[in-house]
Design goal:
The structure is a homodimer.
Chain A (H helix, E strand, L loop, with lengths): L2 E6 L7 H16 L3 E6 L5 H10 L7 H25 L4 E4 L6 E3 L8 E4 L2 H8 L3 E5 L2 E3 L5 E3 L4 H12 L4 E6 L20 E3 H9 L6 H10 L3 E5 L7 E4 L7 H4 L4 E17 L4 H11 L7 E5 L5 E9 L3 H11 L8 E13 L9 H11 L4 E7 L2 E7 L3 H11 L7
Parallel strand pairs in A: 1-2, 1-9, 2-6, 3-6, 9-11, 10-12
Antiparallel strand pairs in A: 4-5, 7-8, 11-12, 13-15, 13-16, 14-15, 16-18, 17-18
């Protein structure tokens, strides 16, 4: 008897018909003799609607209160899905994040899972029940409700799969799997049958639709993650440990092209060029929960001051600017500039670090397309360029073609 | 420094403007140097909307699942109210029923509070916070979510007031207090400045807008309950322990006329007239959570069989009929009949039991109005008649006038 954790996103449970459809799919897994835990997101646009509702009483809702408010979205979807299963004659039970043992830190709005206590889930499974768990939410040691941030339900599912030692974690969504690029942008993008955690992590962080923390967790606990469509039976993409033997030809190829369009850049000019400046700048940003991506530091011609540029999401830009302006005087900085019209494009592939020429090839393709590069960062398996947002889609298409990823038509 | 528990119903927090209005009222209590805990119901018709939503996936939603679903309504209203208070500059915190220590039994849909553990609420109050608590909900020893049934937020408020030893529990609603009859039915109804728990209990059970269990709790723990409007500053009605000294003239008066229109009658004909029959009939109904009100037993002419009639709410009728038909054969009953077109009207007053003539006066007033009486029950402070529903409003007006309760115009 296998144990599966399945996760369905908001678009898969957007209305009663879709919920009944998901119920039938879950029932089929159970009927095939398996145990199943299903993690569900809030229906459709519920989370956005709740945020709008909060805005009607407060322009800056308290993060703790907002999390308790947002947590109701998943409580609605899990109870409806459980009712739908019961209506089909199955013994289902819904559990909130806290009931399912999802413990987190106190970072409201983007809490991290500290521990999963799967005792209750296991007890319900042992009684032959189909367990439905609210994604996206957990509780602090004080039993306050937290949410895990956008896409957090993926993380809930993988964390539960790890804690339950499940055979596989299936993420059902509105796309059929992981592609070599966003198919809406690059029509010739090809679906990947399988991909390694690290490559997927870069694809996810750089724009593909998966919560990066879920991939991290899957990698650490070695949980095979299968991404497929909730609406069709087409085969999806398996994210798993790539073996060190074999697959050599695969490993030296580029896996895909990722992008994100919500990139903003902050430049702090004329910072004193002395030890500790970077720490003084980025520690408070981290403490404020602002995620900084690319960082570039350019020493000025006279070598006494330096300009530091970094990117954040456009959503974090105003908070980041507030933090920076408070800090400015402490390290003698001059002007602070920002640009919120940027995007990133990335070439991802696990073989790249050992194979020269990928970076220069990327820069050449962008140059030939007349696309200016603002900043560059590289990781072991990724090369990313910050470019003008207007050029993002074109860059993805050019890179997809240039790296020979286009599906044979 | 006084400690108050205030409760606001769904119509008082139906939209953002009303929530901000409630926030201002709470803030004023705090500004006057008091501690305050506010219990809130779900916004407007949220609970009904959630029930409708459940119906879209299941015609008979599982009670446990339904309770978890319904509990989200109050989580929305408490978080919005807390955000609104914070927006006004106050340090507010919202707590779900379980977080506020409301422990219940496992009777989903109409759970009873077994215990209130006020430790968390007290800790927040000690930090100078304005505490907002979700009404209507609690948790079982297994940490499953329960709801207390319609009007349960009143019970939450009084239970919290008792556990916190609050100075008073204020119930703010869309009426200005407790009247001698429903003002929509009897336009000459007068507002009562104060009323005893027992009389209020009869008025509440017989139709006035208060959750009877909240009055019971108030009576047991001697919590003064003040009922007033959330929209005006008009004085309301204080429900409290009536003193044994003084007020003699008040005590021998009729306090008010109550009614309810959701009465259904079940008659089990030809039941064997032997010991244990009533127990065999009513124990399973109680076990099914069906509340039986009036019970009348008529022995037949031949004295070997009897007819038993009882009333339930119209909402419980189909379940009651199902239970009874399962039992029928076990005590040799014949036909089961039902009538769901009934209402009850009651004359309530704490002095009635020692004062003859009230019952006959009631029957005379109804008879003179051409209103037929189907069943009669009396308690120490109440006389109730079951009549045809079409006559209910007329009966209330006639009794209100006949017992000289009409306000001097």
């Amino acid at each position: 008897m296998a144990l599966y954790v399945h996760k369905y996103g908001g678009s898969s449970v957007a209305d009663a018909d879709k919920i009944v459809n998901v119920a039938r799919r879950i029932a089929a897994v159970h009927d095939a003799g398996n145990q199943i835990v299903t993690v569900v997101s809030a229906m459709g646009d519920t989370t956005d609607e709740l945020i709008d509702l909060a805005q009607t009483v407060s322009s800056e809702p308290d993060p703790r209160e907002l999390d308790l408010l947002l947590s109701t979205g998943e409580l609605v979807s899990i109870t409806l899905l459980s009712m739908a299963l019961r209506n089909l004659g199955y013994d289902a039970i819904s559990l909130s994040g806290p009931q399912a043992g999802i413990r987190t830190d106190r970072t409201y709005g983007r809490a991290r899972i500290s521990q999963v206590d799967p005792e209750r889930v296991r007890r319900e499974l042992d009684q032959g029940r189909l367990v439905i768990v609210a994604g996206f939410q957990g509780s602090t040691p004080d039993e306050d409700i937290t949410t895990l941030g956008r896409g957090g339900s993926d993380t809930t599912a993988v964390a539960l799969a790890a804690a339950l030692e499940a055979d596989r974690c299936d993420i059902y969504t509105d796309v059929e799997g992981i592609y070599t690029a966003d198919p809406r942008v690059a029509p010739k993008a090809a679906k990947l049958a399988h991909v390694g955690y690290e490559e997927m992590l870069e694809l996810a962080a750089a724009g593909a639709k998966m919560h990066p923390r879920s991939i991290e967790l899957g990698s650490v606990y070695n949980v095979p993650i299968y991404v497929a469509s909730s609406f069709t039976d087409a085969s999806g993409t398996l994210i798993h440990q790539t073996s060190d033997d074999g697959e050599m030809e695969d490993r030296i190829k580029v896996t895909g092209i990722a992008y994100q369009t919500n990139v903003a850049k902050v430049t702090v000019c004329g910072v004193e060029d002395k030890p500790g400046v970077a720490a003084a700048l980025f520690e408070p940003l981290a403490a404020a929960g602002i995620s900084v991506d690319t960082i570039v530091q350019n020493t000025s011609a006279d070598r006494t001051t330096t300009d530091i540029s970094f990117t954040v999401t456009t959503a974090d830009l105003s908070r980041a600017l507030r933090e920076v302006s408070q800090l400015k005087s402490s390290f003698g900085a001059g002007q602070v500039m920002s640009d919120e019209t940027l995007a990133s494009v990335s070439v991802v592939g696990s073989g790249m670090q050992n194979t020269p020429g990928y970076a220069s090839r990327m820069f050449r393709i962008l140059a030939d397309g007349g696309i200016n590069i603002d900043m560059i960062t590289t990781s072991e398996i990724r090369i990313s360029c910050i470019i003008n947002r207007d050029k993002a889609h074109e860059a993805v298409r050019l890179l997809h073609e240039g790296f020979e990823l286009d599906e044979a038509g």
